[in-house]
UniProtKB/TrEMBL annotation:
Entry EC number(s): 3.2.2.31
Keywords from the named record: 4Fe-4S, DNA damage, DNA repair, Glycosidase, Hydrolase, Iron, Iron-sulfur, Metal-binding
Species of provenance: Stratiformator vulcanicus
Highest taxon above the source species: Bacteria
Reactions catalysed, as given in the entry: Hydrolyzes free adenine bases from 7,8-dihydro-8-oxoguanine:adenine mismatched double-stranded DNA, leaving an apurinic site
GO biological process: base-excision repair; mismatch repair
CDD domains documented for this protein: ENDO3c
Name of the protein this chain belongs to: Adenine DNA glycosylase
Length: 400
DNA sequence: TAGACGTGGCA
DNA sequence: TTGCCAAGTCT
């Protein structure tokens, strides 16, 4: 035990306080990155705008998911001025399916900020960058180092895991104390020059070698400096975080038909999928659920494999609840039809049973105090199963 | 400071 | 099927 403590201490000192070891570590890391680093679209450019877009898209999102969105976005908005001049709705539509839509709204707002308050030229320092909406400490450091080679440290999921293992840090990585240690470490190991390249190399190592489940320590240029590898603590470090169980919910969407069109509404502030278009949608409250019988599930269902139609009618209380909801939310009265659909979705912390009802317009005018539209749609059954963010708008015709 | 915010892939 | 996770930020 004592010898382990001595060794942990000695090793962590080696990396951060021995200039020779640190130099060797940097050389080995950069050599490894030159040989093994992936060729990704945003690594081929020094354009701060493109790097910014990629960094925002990559927040909590996999590389594979981002690539097509990144290409489309830059194709549509090649410069910060063009993004600033866009309608927010167009930016959101381009973002649809990526999730975390506030990223898109912040991106748009920040572009306008740059266009009007920074004379259209991109802020060059991490400090300035962090004053923009949606750019926190990590993203500011990433853009400043990748695009301008500022000596700015970075800590995000990949590097956090890497640093924790290198240091043998067993505490909760999210705790204030450990965060302070990690940011300090990130700054200490940064070389004088080529910081952008160095940061990319750190992230790449964390992302492809120093993985969560089975890190490839045999291929790691830093394993000889790694406390976790020395003591076989890769599974214990970093400390696992706990997640709460998803909350079960029952949602109902209603496709109200008038001639060949259906009623949709734009979701407002404080709701999920803010700014995206959706069928009117309500969450059934628990007391109602105790009184009614929901249509049974006809077949296998999962997040992405919706059930086929079921023809079970809803009970009278549910019918009147839904019809009243439509009237309150949209101003029109409607009559539910006999066909109801069901599907199950999991949305992050919620496990949602989703019923999709068809209804016929009866009478009334659309409320003028919120965005509502009658639109033609493609493939109603697919659309009814969709959530706003899951390519919903792609199935609408004549949305604007 | 913990919880909110989305979606898709993988075991 | 379920749970966990992915280049975080904001409140």
């Amino acid at each position: 035990m004592f010898s382990q403590l001595v060794e942990s201490f000695a090793l962590s000192k080696l990396l951060t306080e021995s200039p020779a070891k640190l130099k060797r570590f940097r050389e080995k890391l950069l050599a490894w990155y030159a040989e093994r680093g992936r060729d990704l679209p945003w690594r081929r450019t020094c354009d701060p705008y493109a790097i910014w877009i990629s960094e925002i898209m990559l927040q909590q999102t996999t590389v594979a998911a981002v690539i097509p969105y990144f290409e489309r976005f830059l194709d549509r908005f090649p410069t910060v001025q063009q993004l600033a001049a866009a309608e927010e709705a167009d930016v959101l539509k381009l973002w649809e399916g990526l999730g975390y839509y506030s990223r898109a709204r912040n991106l748009h707002a920040a572009a306008q900020d740059i266009a009007t308050n920074h004379a259209g030229s991109f802020p060059r320092t991490a400090e300035e960058l962090q004053s923009l909406k949606g750019i926190g400490r990590y993203t500011a450091g990433a853009i400043a180092s990748f695009a301008f080679d500022e000596r700015a440290p970075i800590v995000e999921a990949n590097t956090q895991r890497l640093y924790c293992r290198l240091l043998g840090e067993r505490g909760d990585p999210k705790s204030t104390g450990v965060q302070k240690t990690l940011w300090q470490f990130a700054e200490t190991i940064l070389p004088k020059n080529d910081c952008g390249l160095f940061n990319q190399a750190l992230m790449e190592l964390g992302g492809t070698v120093c993985t969560i489940e089975s890190p490839s320590c045999g291929d790691c240029p830093a394993s000889r400096y790694c406390v976790a590898a020395r003591h076989d603590l890769q599974q214990q470090i970093p400390a696992a975080k706990r997640r709460s169980k998803p909350t079960p919910l029952v949602d109902v969407t209603v496709a109200v038909r008038k001639d060949d069109r259906y009623l949709i509404r734009q979701r407002g502030l404080g709701e999920w999928w803010t700014g995206l278009w959706d069928f009117p949608r309500l969450t059934l409250d628990e007391t109602l659920l105790t009184r009614i019988t929901l249509p049974s599930v006809p077949a296998r269902s999962s997040r992405d494999q919706p059930n086929l139609f079921t023809r079970e009618p809803v009970c009278e209380e549910l019918r009147s609840t839904i019809e009243q909801f439509i009237c309150d939310q949209t101003g029109v009265s409607c009559r539910l039809r006999g066909a109801e659909l069901e599907v199950r979705h999991a949305v992050t912390r919620y496990k949602i049973r989703l019923f999709c009802c068809l209804a016929d317009y009866q009478s009334g005018r659309l409320s003028s105090d919120q965005p509502l539209k009658w639109v033609r749609v493609n493939a109603l059954s697919e659309l009814a199963f969709s959530q706003p963010g899951r390519r919903f708008a792609d199935r609408l015709i004549e949305i604007s």
